């Protein structure tokens, strides 16, 4: 009897339809601020504190987020395009129905965050911290992720499409219906033993063979 391979459930992508937006004209964001239907364009938000703020039906375009504090923020039904920054703090934030397009970020803190129906398309993100985060219906498409940290995170219905993963850390992560088959490059530095619940291609299996063997303590040697 031949067992059929279990079908990997596809991620549900966000369907963001922004209303007519009003240009944001304030000097800076504030903690627990409420931002609804606004367009942030070319705004320099570096080192500002917007912890606990809510962004609903907003567009952030070409904004600088170096060191911006957005911990516990809620970003809902919004599109972020061409944002850039180092050390942006989104720890324990909620991103729901969000499109992140052509971002250039480094050291972004999303540990403990909740991401649901999020599309990350294009751009490059270095040292993304998603430790103990919860990702559900998230698609990484055509982007480069350098040393992303998924340690202790839960990934459910997450897809990597034409995406480069370099040095990914999956230590203690839980993967459910995670589709890695279309990743352009798949490099797992730690936690390869957590791939149960993920789908990979035959070619990826061959590429990962040395790492899998090392994780199992398997010694590969030619016969005498």
TrEMBL record:
Pfam families noted in UniProt: Pentapeptide, Pentapeptide_4
InterPro entries xref list: 5peptide_repeat
UniProtKB keywords: Repeat
Keyword set includes Repeat: yes
Protein name: Pentapeptide repeat-containing protein
């Amino acid at each position: 009897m031949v067992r059929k391979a279990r079908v990997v459930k596809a991620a549900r992508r966000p369907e963001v339809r922004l209303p007519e937006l009003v240009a944001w004209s304030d000097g800076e964001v504030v903690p627990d601020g409420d931002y609804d239907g606004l367009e942030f364009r070319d705004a320099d938000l570096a080192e500002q504190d917007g912890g606990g703020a809510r962004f609903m039906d907003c567009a952030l375009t070409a904004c600088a987020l170096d060191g911006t504090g957005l911990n516990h923020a809620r970003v809902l039904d919004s599109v972020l395009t061409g944002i850039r920054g180092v050390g942006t703090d989104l720890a324990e934030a909620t991103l729901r129905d969000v499109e992140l397009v052509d971002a250039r970020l480094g050291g972004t803190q999303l540990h403990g965050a909740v991401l649901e129906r999020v599309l990350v398309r294009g751009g490059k993100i270095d040292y993304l911290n998603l430790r103990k985060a919860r990702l559900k219906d998230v698609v990484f498409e055509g982007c480069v992720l350098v040393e992303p940290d998924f340690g202790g995170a839960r990934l459910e219905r997450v897809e990597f499409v034409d995406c480069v993963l370099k040095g990914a850390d999956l230590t203690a992560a839980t993967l459910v219906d995670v589709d890695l088959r279309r990743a352009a490059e798949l490099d797992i530095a730690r936690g390869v033993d957590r791939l149960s619940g993920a789908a990979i291609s035959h070619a990826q299996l061959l590429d990962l063979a040395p790492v899998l063997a090392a994780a199992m303590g398997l010694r590969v040697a030619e016969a005498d």
